[in-house]
Amino acid sequence: MSGGWNTIESDAGVFTYLIEKLGVKDVQFEELMTLEPVELRQAGKIYGVIFLFKYPTGEKRSDKPNDGTYDHDASSNIFFAAQTIQNACGTQALLSVLLNKDGEVDIGKELREFKEFAGEFPPELRGETLSNSDLIRETHNSFARSSPFVDETQRTATEDDDVYHFIAYTSINNTLYELDGLQPAPISHGACTTSEFPDKVIPVLQRRIARYPATEIRFNLLACVRDLRIRAREMGDEEALEAEDSKRSDWLWENALRRHNFVGFVGELLKGVVKDKLSQGDGVYEKWVEDSKAKTRRRVEDRRKKGLGGDDIE
């Protein structure tokens, strides 16, 4: 493999433009704010969901999953890949949905060729093939947030780190499957048609969340759906179409910002401010520094009075 995989955010705009860059047509992701089937149905035609959660690092594989049953035979007729590399699980989860919806979704020439090439392999080799795909890796990395301080390809998680993991849920062959590359096989959650998916997947997600302490709220759910602009055009809903176009523009802007490292810009800005203060004459620079220190001390004292940590400055 010629390079590593960087961390990407669980964000509808990131995932939508990532799959478009891979050649997928007329599909987008929508963030869901509640675990209600009605909200999922409102997203239109649904292909699956991507769930992000804090991974219990001490958890070990067992012969039986916490929920559902392993379907070891399913790997021969659905696309399921073992996760073989860190940081790739977000892209692997969305591909777990899309590569199993080929026919319903136009996944494009590149992904179709990848699926045909890797489809006959066992899950472990499929995972290796995915990890070694230059196209998929480079597209994935193009949506990573720029960091001048941390090389994500070299970083290794420790037991004290919060580790997050993406998995996919989708209906395949009238069965609700959980596709998690860290598990030995797809997990079946029972019979489920495409139309039943919103009603069947929500209880599964609720049971998973219920295994965490009530104070744990760091979850994220993205629905993989048909491009909402298509539905707006079909219904002649100009207001909805305008809202979707505006959302796409916002996503483009946010994705562009992710690619930029602003440290150099901030450094030059600070140098300009300091130069300006120094040019204003004797004592101006020193007074500016002392005023800044005084403001910081006041903020610390205010936070302590409110019962907050004095060192926790926002």
From TrEMBL:
Family membership: Belongs to the peptidase C12 family.
Organism per entry: Aaosphaeria arxii CBS 175.79
GO cellular component, one term: cytoplasm
Keyword presence, Hydrolase: yes
Any Gene Ontology biological process: protein deubiquitination
Keywords: Hydrolase, Protease, Thiol protease, Ubl conjugation pathway
Signal peptide positions (record): none
One family name in Pfam for this protein: Peptidase_C12
Superkingdom to which the source organism belongs: Eukaryota
One annotated GO molecular function: cysteine-type deubiquitinase activity
Full protein name: Ubiquitin carboxyl-terminal hydrolase
Catalyzed reaction equations: Thiol-dependent hydrolysis of ester, thioester, amide, peptide and isopeptide bonds formed by the C-terminal Gly of ubiquitin (a 76-residue protein attached to proteins as an intracellular targeting signal)
